[in-house]
Design goal:
By secondary structure, this protein is an alpha/beta fold. It has a domain at about 50-180 and about 240-355: SGNH hydrolase (Rossmann fold), CATH 3.40.50. About 50% of the residues lie in helices and about 10% in strands. A 5-stranded parallel sheet has the order 6-5-7-8-9, sandwiched between helices. Strands 1-2 form a two-stranded antiparallel sheet. α5 (about 145-155) packs parallel to α10, α6 crosses α12 and α10 crosses α12. The longest helix has about 40 residues, at about 1-40. It is globular, with a radius of gyration of 24 Å. The model is unreliable at about 35-40 (pLDDT under 50).
């Protein structure tokens, strides 16, 4: 009788525990789903959007799950839409010149601004440059990339660079913002995410066939774990937290990392008989200083790192400083460095005067 009573008690406790765990999982799912919906919807810090921009963001959701790629971290998968088209090699489609001026090609590298975040294919900088100059162009840029990732992609595509071509690295914003988080000098945007995914190693007794690995894999699929990751991410990357680059030693280290990547890229490009341009991109923070209360980390990172880049970049033959290029604030697509088609036209026109 006592045994039956104990079994019944344990069963009730297990049932209650399972019900509470189920309720917690449901609550976590609702919370994380709401957060994901808000994150995937049209950004709230944008100015009023025209119909084309709204269509872009609707279509953009189809490209959001960018897979891992060796050496560069991640790379867009093939996609074909009305506004966004990506080739099987992970390249954003660039318009062909109506009549090419030369057989030379301009190879553009960078982050989301060069990629064309917020605009259709023909509104990205490489496409507008081609339309303006009649020169062939290739858009090697990728969302959230730093210039080390661009350097790695350059190495992988070095055979595509021909004598007389030009290579453009358009950098600054991502390198400063991501590099100025604590312990992140030289890191890209997903370092912490990848570290977390690799936290269970292949070593015994924690290998892929172990019970611990199976339990860990199960837990990682729950909404409760997803909620934990969201909270942790917000604590690590808080937009209102101070930048680590308010320490001048860190700011200079971030700058040195960018400069050294440019030096390496220049040597590689010149070995192919091509021209190299390392562009320090403009940012609303460095000129207009828009919405400072919501992007304290980003503003401090740009304001502290850019002067070091400008100082060190002046010693590079490839360096072009566009940090203070005047772009009307209505042409910034958001409060960062993304531009509308009109803003990209200004950049394309400026580059057309610089590139041989």
């Amino acid at each position: 009788m006592t045994i039956k009573k104990n079994v019944a008690t344990v069963s009730i406790i297990l049932l209650i525990t399972m019900m509470m765990a189920g309720l917690a999982e449901l609550c976590a799912y609702v919370f994380t789903a709401k957060a994901q919906l808000e994150a995937s919807s049209t950004p709230k810090d944008l100015p009023s959007l025209d119909p084309e921009q709204l269509e872009f963001f609707t279509e953009y959701q189809g490209t959001a799950n960018i897979p891992y790629k060796s050496h560069v971290g991640w790379q867009s998968k093939e996609f074909h839409g009305r506004y966004i088209n990506i080739t099987g090699k992970g390249l954003r489609v660039t318009g062909s010149p109506v009549k090419s001026n030369t057989a030379h090609t301009i190879h553009f590298f960078g982050g989301s601004t060069m990629w064309g975040y917020g605009v259709r294919d023909d509104g990205a900088i490489p496409s507008l440059f081609t339309k303006r100059t009649g020169l062939n162009s290739i858009n090697y840029a990728e969302l959230a990339w730093t210039n080390r990732q661009s350097l790695n992609r350059l190495i992988s595509n070095l055979s595509e660079i021909q004598k007389g071509d030009s290579v453009v690295f358009y950098d600054g914003y991502n390198d400063a913002v991501y590099g100025c988080y604590p312990g992140m000098v030289g890191a890209h945007a997903r370092e912490q995410q990848i570290n977390d995914a690799l936290s269970v190693t292949s070593y015994t007794p924690y290998g892929r066939h172990s019970l611990l690995f199976g339990l860990t894999a199960f837990v990682r699929e729950t909404s409760i774990y997803a909620l934990y990751e969201q909270i942790k991410s917000r604590r690590v990357h808080q937009p209102d937290s101070h930048s680590d680059c308010t320490n001048h030693v860190t700011a200079e280290a971030v700058s040195d990392f960018i400069i050294n990547n440019w030096r390496a890229a220049e040597q590689l490009v010149k070995s192919r008989g091509a021209n190299f341009y390392c562009i320090l991109q403009p940012s609303s923070f460095f000129t207009e200083r828009l919405n400072p209360k919501t992007t304290l980390h980003d503003i401090e990172s740009i304001m502290e790192v850019y002067p070091y880049i400008i100082r060190a970049g002046s010693n590079l033959s490839c360096f072009v400083d566009l940090s203070r290029l005047k772009i009307p604030k209505e042409h910034y697509f958001d409060i960062q460095a993304h531009l509308t088609r009109e803003g990209n036209e200004i950049i394309a026109g400026t580059l057309a005067k610089i590139i041989e």
